[in-house]
Design a protein that fits this description.
It contains 7 helices and no strands. It has 203 residues and is mainly alpha-helical.
Length: 203
């Protein structure tokens, strides 16, 4: 919901460290893969109930997610990089709640499963819209430099990361937070399906 508003600030903040990494010969794909590794370690930390470490890993994963795009724009963006960026983001988004499920399966299992299922719906509607939008030559005005057509919604990256941070800060409240965000994600998926129905019905 607020990703497009945060994008200019994010790019301004990422530019200095990205320039340093480019000067050091670091490639965008390397940052993407390192970010995934950190994200998976953060999920493991949550599973072991080291919630402070999980929060640090979450922050570092998101830092890597911003840096890889900045480095790519300063060097040479590639289709492989765009694919890795979006695919590995979804891997992280699925893995992080699983850590909390492993920490307390009896309490967190059902809300965690519902949350991940809602992520599948938001991700599927997002990617399906992007594929057909690309086929039709559509562009997203709010996200002109994204590797694929980026369709916003009520639950976007910023909201998801805020929820993940809340999991770390208030682990006992995981079920309630997960159920509430599941509803938000379902609304997001529904609005994207409605958008696809209307936009792609205009032949």
């Amino acid at each position: 919901m607020i990703d497009s508003r945060l994008l200019p600030l994010q790019r301004a903040m990422m530019e200095p460290p990205a320039r340093f990494l480019v000067a050091c010969g670091v490639r965008a794909d390397q940052i993407t893969l390192a970010g995934l590794a950190i994200g998976l370690l953060a999920a493991l930390a949550a599973a072991l109930e080291f919630y402070g470490l999980a929060l640090v890993g979450l922050a570092l994963n998101r830092l890597a997610d911003g840096l890889d795009g900045a480095v790519a724009r300063m060097t040479r963006p590639t289709d492989r990089g765009a694919f890795l960026d979006i695919a590995l983001d979804f891997v992280f988004y699925a893995a992080f709640p699983v850590g909390f499920v492993f920490a307390d399966p009896a309490t967190n299992g059902l809300p965690g499963a519902a949350l991940i299922a809602s992520f599948i719906l938001t991700g599927t509607s997002f990617l399906a819209f992007s594929v057909i939008a690309e086929r039709r030559g559509l562009t997203a005005e709010d996200y002109p430099n994204k590797g694929i057509y980026y369709l916003g919604g009520l639950a976007e990256g910023a909201e998801t990361i805020a929820v993940f941070a809340a999991f770390c800060l208030f682990p006992a409240a995981f079920p309630w937070i997960a159920w509430m965000f599941t509803i938000v994600c379902l609304i997001t998926a529904l609005t994207r399906c409605v958008a696809g129905w209307h936009v792609f019905g205009q032949d």
